[in-house]
Design a protein that fits this description.
- By secondary structure, the protein is α/β, with parallel strands linked by helices.
- It has 9 helices and 10 strands.
- Helix 1 crosses helix 3 and helix 1 packs across helix 4 (about 60-85).
Length: about 300
């Protein structure tokens, strides 16, 4: 069979929450991603796993059987992985690190290189990706840790978060924006503008983003466009008169093409890890970085 571990994780989460929206929120992906993977799993198994009624979702008898099987399989897999790590030689350890695209990660990158130099027997693979790809990859086990901004992860059942670098919020407008040239341009002038953000099109994520705009600007954005990556956000801002709330650590080509409004608010780039990750090198990396970059876990 071609079912994937990601499909199984989504199914177990769906069985727990019995809601596409809640499952998408706790897994930090879109509802469409959850729906697609559940449908693919049902097609692969040739089974209907959920009753879909107007009152909500419930497990079918087949779904209950598969939930018990997958849950047992996950427990056995975790136990086997833990046992394997006990007997694995340090020469074979490697770690997959994901960095959020478009940000200046020089401090973090240099510390990762030093960690590699101090531990030549280990291997670090570094990949740059979008927010959605990083979060999905983290949940699927493709990344051991990722460095990204996060929203309200302190109550996550799936992730641990270690605040790392601070970054100041900045508002980006195109140099051709209708507001450009206004004297004493301020945050309150943006109240009626369309905002564009590199976030997942997920109701919980969008709500958190709107709350973040409110905390920075004092108003809720009336319209919000979600884009999959930073490049598409920059293009949207440049050509469609949107506003983007970015950071002073954002790498933006040709900054002179944009009007930037500084704010006094900050956010944290954080190290995120899945709680189920059993790679012992993750703990070693976190211990190395803690006195240099990382704050205590959130």
């Amino acid at each position: 069979m071609d079912m994937t571990q990601l499909q199984i994780e989504y199914f177990i989460a769906m069985a727990q929450h019995l809601s596409f929206s809640r499952t998408a929120a706790v897994m930090y992906v879109s509802q469409a991603a959850i729906s697609k993977q559940i449908a693919a799993l049902e097609q692969e198994l040739g089974l209907t796993l959920f009753n879909r009624r107007y009152r909500g979702l419930s497990l079918t008898v087949a779904g209950e059987i598969m939930l018990e099987l997958f849950s047992r399989h996950r427990r056995e897999l975790d136990e086997a992985v833990q046992e394997a790590h006990k007997h694995q030689t340090s020469e074979n350890l490697h770690i997959e690190v994901g960095l959020l695209e478009g940000l200046d990660f020089e401090e973090i990158y240099l510390e990762l290189l030093k960690f590699q130099q101090f531990n030549p027997q280990h291997r670090i693979n570094i990949t740059v990706n979008s927010v959605a790809a990083l979060m999905e990859g983290l949940m699927a086990g493709e990344y051991d840790v990722v460095f990204s901004f996060h929203q309200e992860l302190h109550d996550s059942d799936y992730l641990d978060s270690y605040p790392a670098l601070s970054a100041r919020f900045q508002m980006f407008l195109s140099a051709d924006h209708a507001l450009n040239g206004r004297e004493d341009l301020s945050l309150t002038d943006l109240a009626d503008q369309t905002f564009c953000a590199p976030i997942t099109d997920n109701e919980r994520v969008k709500k958190e983003y709107r709350n973040r705009v409110y905390s920075v600007c004092g108003f809720m954005p009336k319209r919000l466009i979600c884009k999959p990556n930073l490049d598409s956000v920059i293009s949207e801002v440049q050509y469609n008169n949107c506003v983007a709330m970015l950071y002073n650590k954002t790498r933006v080509v040709n900054r002179e093409r944009f009007t930037v409004i500084e704010t006094e608010s900050y956010n944290h780039i954080s190290l995120l890890r899945a709680k189920r990750n059993n790679n012992p090198l993750v703990g070693k990396l976190i211990r190395y970085l803690s006195p240099k970059l990382l704050a205590p876990p959130v």
